[in-house]
Amino acid sequence: MSSQERLGYIGLGNMGAPMAKRLVQWPGGVTVYDVRVEAMTPLAELGATLADSVADVADADIICVTVLNDEQVRDVVGQLAAKAKPDTVIAIHSTISDTTAVELAAALKPQGIHIVDAPVSGGGGAADKGELAVMVGAERPVYERIKPAFKQFASMVIHAGEPGAGTRMKLARNMLTFTSYTAACEAMKLAEAAGLDLQTLGRVVRHTDALTGGPGAIMVREDMADLTPDHWLYDAFTHTRGLGEKDLSLALGLGDVVGVDLPLAKLALQRLAAGLGVPHPNE
To answer: What are the residue numbers of the active site?
Structure first.
């Protein structure tokens, strides 16, 4: 990617604004647009060019889009495609259906327009610091072309695969986040019924997750096949299975005592061994 390519950014909300702000010093310049003029003003003061409409951003070479949902993504991409030149890249940072980018990429390929799905993870604070993770679904040459621009607002830029793969990776990542939130709520119900201070429990969880890596610590396998005894993870995961089953059983026992139903803990006890790839012989 040439640093002289011009960037565009559409959608200056909680995520889009700090991401676009990281692009204002790009040598080729950046043009921004949002339906709210007040959202654009701070970027103009930093040196960004303001557009009067979505279509006015279409002359940029690489255009980032962070809008609310699939309907808005399709609308914005349609307006851009009507005016964009061949070899323009439109990168969708919104979290949308995994089929939307695939359909748009196929529809616009005859025009020479590259549709990329590039959802981000890390939140507004990470965007401010340029520390987001970006999961990119794109053809490899397109990925290499846009990566330097993405590195302005991200400390991790991953090539997930072809268009659509970035969204699928984001959905898997967010599934873990919100499933773990549900599990955390279940743990807090147990703690509250057991007479514990929930804020103190939260401090312990945040402290120990920072040390152990939380769920991400076990996400080091090449595939989800059962592990063989000679696999480098077999002994460690067998040990983890034993600890997990013991601790889950004890937590369920406490739940029975204090009268709290723990459906996620029950499911975890049932599926932990198989999920780790070290099922019991009779499973």
So the answer is: 170
pLDDT in tens, 211-229: 999 999 999 999 999 999 9
Provide the token pair at 2. Answer: 């040439």
Question: pLDDT digit string (tens) for 244-279?
Answer: 999 999 999 999 999 999 999 999 999 999 999 999
| Three-state DSSP string of the chain | CCCCCCEEEECCCCCHHHHHHCCCCCCCCEEEECCCHHHHHHHHHHCCEECCCCHHHCCCCEEEECCCCHHHHHHHHHHHHCCCCCCCEEEECCCCCCCHHHHHHHHHHHHCCEEEECCEECHHHHHHHCCEEEEEECCHHHHHHHHHHHCCCEEEEEEEECCCHHHHHHHHHHHHHHHHHHHHHHHHHHHHHCCCCHHHHHHHHHHHHHHHCHHHHHCCCCCCCCCCCCCCCHHHHHHHHHHHHHHHHHHHHHHHHHCCCCHHHHHHHHHHHHHHCCCCCCC
Q: What is the pLDDT of residues 186-219, one digit of tens each?
A: 999 999 999 999 999 999 999 999 999 999 999 9
